[in-house]
Structures are given as C-alpha cells and as structure tokens.
Amino acid sequence: MNLDELLLPDRVHRRLYTDPAIYDEEMRTLFRRAWIYVGHESEVRHVGDYKRAKIGSEPVILVRGEDEAVRVLVNRCLHRGALVCREEKGNGKFFRCPYHAWTYRNNGELMGVPKRSRYPRDFDLGRLGLVNVPRVESYRGLVFACFDDDIEPLIDYLGPVRNYVDATLDFSLSGEIDLSVGVSRHRYPGNWKLQMENGVDGYHTAFVHETYIGIMSRAEEVELKFGSHGEDQGWTETFPRGHAVLARRADPRAIDVLRGQFPEYTSALEAKHGSERLLEILAHMNVFVFPNLFLIGHQIRVVQPVSVAETEVMMYPYLLAGAPEALNLKRMAEHEGFYPPTGFGTPDDYEVFSAVTEGLQAMSTPWLLLNRGAHDYQDLGDGVRRGTPTDEIHQRAMYTEYARLMGSGSRGGEA
Ligand code: FES
Ligand SMILES: [Fe+2]
Q1: Which of 215, 230, 259, 390 could cross-link with 203 by S-S, CB 3.0 to 4.6 Å?
Q2: Which ligand 1 atom is the nearest neighbour of the CA of 78?
C-alpha cells in the first residue's frame, strides 16, 4: 500500500486512524512482518498449558506440547472455521472444535474427525493440522511469533532496546518474572496506534494526569517528576525497528530507600549488578517494543487492535519470582493505584483517546503533528537517538518502521 502522501517525516494523516482499508492492510502486512509478543513462558510452564493470543487480527494459541516445545498455533478449525480453543487459558492434551468435534493434538496435528467414513478416499488427516506459526522465539521469557519465515532473529530485531528490557526485568533477583496474577483488560473507542504513541509520551503526563500528580504530591508518597516537570531528570531514546523508551533517572537515594524496606534483597541485587547498574534498574522506564508491546512499571502491556476505531488493552501485572512477598504486594498496590479501570491514570488516557477519535472526524484539518524536538536530538550511533522526555522523537521512529513494514518507501526524516 502506498502511504507516502499520508506519512510525512514530521506529521501523519488522520486517515491512518480512521480508514478501514488502512487498518485491514496493517493486519495483512504490518502484523505479519513484525515479531509480535504472544505471551510469557510462565503462562505455559507445564506440558499442556495454553493461552490464547492474537497476531494482529489472527487468533492464535500459545501452547506447550507433550514434547515440551512451545508452539504458536492458529486458532481456526481446518473444517469450517470455528475457533478450536475458546478458553482464555488452561491445560489439556488436545483441542476439540466446538462445531463438529474435529480434534487436534496440542502440537496441532488432527487426531480424528467424527463419522470419517463419509469422507472421500483421499481425505488425509495428515494435511489438516492447525497451522503452526512458522517462527517462534523468546527473549527472557517473553515469547514472540512471526508469520514471515524470513524475519531476522528476535534478538537482532530487539537490538539495543534489550538494555532497557533487561534493566526492567533485572529488578527480579532471579531474573525471572511470573504472570500468574492475571490480566486487566480494557477497551477504548479509538485506533490502536493512539496507545502505541501514548505509552512512551512524556508530553501529556503533566496535563492528562494532573489530578493524580496533585493527589500523590499532597500525600507526599512519592517525589514526582513526571513529564515536563522532570525534563532534566529524564530522556527518551529510539532504536532501530521503531522501539523506544521513556525514562526518568532514579533518585540517587533510591537504593538506600529500598534497603530500608528490603535490606537483604537490596544487598543481593547490589552484589549481583553493582550499584551503578542497580540505579539504572530502579529508574522509571516505559519500554516499547514495536508494534504493540510495552513494559511499563510493574506490568506487561499488550495493545490489541479490534477494529479501526476500537482497541483492547491488556495489562499483565507481574511478580518478581523469588522476591519478598511484601515487595511484590507493594508493587501490585502501586500498579492498582494508577493502571486498572479503577486507577487514577488509565481512564484519563482513554478519555483523551476518545477526544482524539472524535476530533479526527474533522476532515478540514487532516494532519497530526509529530515534530517536537525534530531540530534538536542526539545521535548516539547504531541507530540510537536521544531526545528530551516531551519530544516526539519516538513517535517519528515508530512511523518510520511503520512505513517500512507497510511497504511505503519514501518516508524521510531523521528518526
Ligand atoms: S468447524 Fe470445526 S469441526 Fe466443523
Ligand atoms: Fe498517560
């Protein structure tokens, strides 16, 4: 699809958020050419464990087979199209289609069909297994899948953003996390890319989340230096393939504060990583892996497109495997304060997404501007660029990768 006229280096056109034909093309092209996060290994720890996910609009099942291999199967019966798995997660040896009971092993093979004798002689069960998504790889327990056989290895696709993924997950002393606490799902009326842009947007924080910041400051629970209030303490970085981070340095006293509450755990973290790296681990980071995965605070967040103007957001708060229970409880309480539908933060973001969706009905004014900081950023080499927290350097990087995957060749610009 040629989107050259809709994607300029410093702006994007409203049709990217409103045109069903562009949405269909994203599902057909972008989501099939990128590594898409489908779940965490802790969700399919045991043989037979499965969970449902999506790759764009394509329903899939992440499952650990009898041979212990983790596969991603397309959740679509080869007979006449029903989902073969309707539970969100579970454990089982096979999937039985709810319609005519064709039954598949959990490696995708078709085991049997009822009343088989009425099929012609050349009916071959061996050719009617569930489609296996051809590429499945994981990084630090995060499982990604891709329909494009030729995509680069996941580790190269992630590239230098791995430093921030590692820093986020290394708050777990064992290096492992556990997603067994569940998921909080929400929907908002608007295009999925609004959440993609917003998850690392430091410009809106001081305004959209003003109430939250006010309450927390009065409660003196935390020293808040959000967004434009903390310009000197924060930064954004963009990476090849559209990944990005919005980060704020930890207060130098953060290690001592943590030590006051969890002395043994803190000393063990410090012994493992050194105090300099531990301060990086304690920084506030919103990490974005293109096109629809975030690691924010204490959660893994998946942005799931539903239609051109509807999006589902799944937030999976996670536990630090092996950490003191009190630390995990504290993290869950912090998560609950801001992120779920009852929290202080997320509903405000969804309110502005609806305001944008309605505003974009204005055909007289087609462009969304993404040029903050376009004149002034640091080039750190290897495709890594750095700007201030309120710049739009990350959104520009996202749309550069977006254009590449959508087959739109001529998008220029610095990031
Ligand atoms: S659609 Fe699955 S058995 Fe008929
Ligand atoms: Fe926000």
Answers
A1: 390
A2: 2
What type of residue is 59? P
- Name every residue whose Cβ is closer than 8 Å to that of residue 105 and which is 6 or more positions away in sequence: 65, 66, 93, 94, 111
Residue 47 sits in a domain whose CATH number is 2.102.10.10
Residue 369 falls inside a structural domain = yes
pLDDT at 347 (0 to 100): 86
Asked if residues 84 and 96 have their Cβ atoms less than 8 Å apart, the reply is yes
Note whether 223 and 369 are same-domain residues. Answer: yes
Number of domains in the chain: 2
Question: How far, in Å, is the centroid of ligand 2 from the Cα of 206?
Answer: 9
Write out the residue range of the structural domain in which residue 86 sits: 36-139
Alpha-carbon span 190 to 35, nearest angstrom:
23
Nearest ligand, CA 246: 2
- Residue (of 131, 138, 145) closest to 54 by Cα position: 145
pLDDT tens sequence across 346-357:
889 999 999 999
Note the ipTM here.
Answer: 0.97
Q: Please check whether residues 192 and 262 belong to one and the same domain.
A: yes
Question: Residue 214: which CATH number?
Answer: 3.90.380.10
Asked if residues 142 and 302 have their Cβ atoms less than 8 Å apart, the reply is no
Lowest mean pLDDT among 312-326, 335-349, 354-368, 385-399: 335-349
Q: Ligand 2 centroid vs 209 CA: distance in angstroms?
A: 7
| 74, 75, 77: residue to mutate for ligand 1 pocket, most atoms within 8 A of CB | 77
**Whether residue 108 sits in one domain with residue 65:** yes
Whole-angstrom distance, CA of residue 345 vs CA of residue 35: 29
Ligand 1 contact via 77 beta carbon (within 6 Å): yes
In this prediction, residue 154 carries a pLDDT of: 98
Residues with Cβ within 8 Å of 33's Cβ and at least 6 positions away in sequence, in order, are: 146, 147, 148, 151, 405
- State which ligand 1 atom lies nearest to the alpha carbon of 84: 2
The identity of residue 410, as a single letter, is S
Q: Whose CA is nearest to atom 4 of ligand 1?
A: 100
